[in-house]
Amino acid sequence: MTLKNWGVLGLGMAIGVGAAVGVDRLAAPAAAQAAEAQKYESRVVLENDMVRVKDVTFPAGVADTGMHTHDLAHVGVILTPGSLRFTDPDGKVEVVEFAAGSVGFREANARHMVASGGPGAMRVIEVEIKRP
Description:
The chain has three helices and nine strands; from the N terminus they run αααβββββββββ. By secondary structure, the chain is of the alpha+beta class. The termini are far apart.
């Protein structure tokens, strides 16, 4: 068998495997990467015994962050304008429009999911207060 024939055989095997597995399963890694890109990003930029400061970015279209609890009271400083949808454990939904430079406060043990439905990414600095 010549090298040229091996190429045809390899292509035929690849097509056969693709058909057996399903083209959608071969595309799954790309879909997983797209879903991964839609998750929010949170990174600690400063921490000491009094505060933890996080830089949080919600890309446009984040469906939800998953239900989570903020153990500490915190102040949020909005860096970019946008809209966030907060859903509490009882299903109550609150949609809040934020202007750049606005500031908000939440008590400790705030529990919710967050979604970002706006057209652009939304960036927030969260300052968690460790001591009163």
